[in-house]
Fold:
Amino acid sequence: MLESSWTRCWTFIGASGTGRALMRQLLDAYQAPPRKYHTVQHLTECLTLCNDYMHCAQAPGEVEIALWFHDAVYDVKATDNEERSAAWAMHELQHAGVHPACIARVKEHILATRHAALPQGQDQALLVDIDLAILGAQAERFKEYETQIRAEYSDVPRVLFRRKRRQILEGFLARSPIYATPALQQRFEERARQNMARALAWLGG
Structure:
């Protein structure tokens, strides 16, 4: 699935060559310690959803390549992971001869996964919804996700982690709706709110 996804989006954006060496570099990055959640598992889940909801995108290849890069750089102690991931994407896509307008859109898609503001446009909304689909996962997967997040931030003291985690979940719950893409909203919205309400109760929120 990963190889077919890569070939499809690499071709769609008009990149030269196959980009296979870059694909392997990205997969290595997603497998680098101390990642526990932002791994190939998360990437695969995102790309699977992208394949399922490709019809919702105006430029599906741009959404798909942005998903490949959106967590390419992930340092739990850094605050600029998305910026560095976007910079990596820009460098590689420029080298591959991709049109500047396409590169600019991919960059903005990646930066939208900071979740600091609501996404702009249909494709950006789809990408962000896919990234947040884990919030609406089945209860067992959501519980695993919460465990993985805690493991990634194992160096953070328990009290501080709980306070920060509450803030993040409360921020997503405050969105109305959480998901802007109608198809994903229908599939994930209700369960996401249930999952996060349970998580907040466990965190003491």
Q: What stands out?
A: The chain has two domains: 1-131, 138-205. The chain is about 65% helix and 0% strand.
